[in-house]
Amino acid sequence: MAKLLISAVRCIEVCISARVIAGVLNARTSVFTDVFIPCPFVAGQSAANRMAAKGGGSIMFIGATASVKAPPPFIACVSAKATLRATAAGLAREYGPKGAHVSHVIVDG
Predict the structure, then answer these.
(1) CB count, 10 Å around CB of 43?
(2) pLDDT of residue 1
């Protein structure tokens, strides 16, 4: 899956992620281990590498208040959004000095 995602990132300018609403009882573990954890990392890393090589660019991860709070029944969403936020922060620290601007924007509603 990672190779497919990297190939896709090479040819796009904008990446929009899916929204998840699931409680703990009906959430599938595979969704987190196969999608929500690796996708922001792989997409962000690939885009940041390209931007650093060309001297700049911007990556914006769209998050939610769920990245910092855990209201039921959105517990499954919380872990995905917290992963997204942490990935954005890590990429910003690593690639910011190389010219890539990385942000995590909380948009609720």
Answers:
(1) 21
(2) 47
